[in-house]
Design a protein that fits this description.
Glutaconate Coenzyme A-transferase, alpha/beta, eight-stranded mixed beta sheet, 6 helices, three-stranded antiparallel beta sheet, 27% strand
Length: 235
């Protein structure tokens, strides 16, 4: 039951060229920084990545883009990454943009064993093109398929040696559902504790979903866009 590995490099030892990888977090919050850096060092190519966004230039998943390791990305938001825009326009990266709610539900469905579902989001738009539609109670719905992956990279605040995980605030976005939707879920945590130290009622991801866990070494906790208020003169 002890699922602890020494570091990120050991955790990703079996990731292969062409793998599909889910990456948790929202913006730069709650992203598995150590696993991403290890993946860059490993140098695997032709990856399909599934995440809300693709990091920023020079950080997070932006490192994978710069290294030319991503072949296709499935996500919801790409507005902070100039490199991604350039690569998509140049035909170097295939991009599949999905409405955020649909994206979340496709991952949840993948983890729950639901192959597809119907949603009104995207009906009559480019999102719904070439997809099956069906009418329910007088309203048209489009069918969306579940998302699954070979690996899921998860970042949590605390975890124990069995792989039980607790997230903090915004870092909880996408991480829990992705942990359920991959063949192999790898978790990096800020604090690795002994079994029994976590409050059972506070656990967000139970250990059954986690195959490997380790304590991360470096977290930069960058801010995507820093906004400050202009100083006002006292009168």
């Amino acid at each position: 039951m002890n699922k602890v590995v020494a570091n990120a490099d050991e955790a990703i030892h079996d990731i292969f060229d062409g793998a599909t990888i889910m990456v948790g977090g929202f913006g730069l919050c709650g992203i598995p920084e150590n696993l991403i850096r290890a993946l860059v060092r490993k140098g695997v190519k032709n990856l399909t990545t599934i995440s809300n966004n693709v990091g920023v230039d020079g950080f997070g998943m932006g490192l994978l883009l710069a290294a030319g390791q991503i072949r296709k990305h499935i996500g919801t938001y790409v507005g902070e990454n100039k490199l991604l825009e350039q690569m998509v326009l140049a035909g170097k990266v295939e991009l599949d943009l999905v409405p955020q709610g649909t994206f979340s539900e496709r991952i949840r469905a993948g983890g729950a064993g639901i192959p597809a579902f119907f949603t009104p989001t995207g009906v009559g738009t480019i999102v719904g093109e070439n997809k099956e539609t069906r009418e329910f109670d007088g309203r048209l719905y489009v069918m969306e398929h579940a998302l699954k992956a070979d690996f899921a990279f998860i970042k949590a605040w605390k975890g124990d040696k069995w792989g039980n995980l607790i997230y903090r605030k915004t870092a909880r976005n996408f991480n829990p559902m992705m942990a359920t939707a991959a063949k192999i879920t790898i978790a990096e945590v800020e604090h690795l504790v002994e079994v029994g130290e976590l409050d059972a009622d506070s656990i967000h991801t139970p250990s059954v979903y986690v195959k490997r866990i380790f304590q991360g070494e470096l977290y930069e906790r960058r801010i995507e866009r820093r906004t400050v208020r202009k100083a006002t003169q006292n009168r």
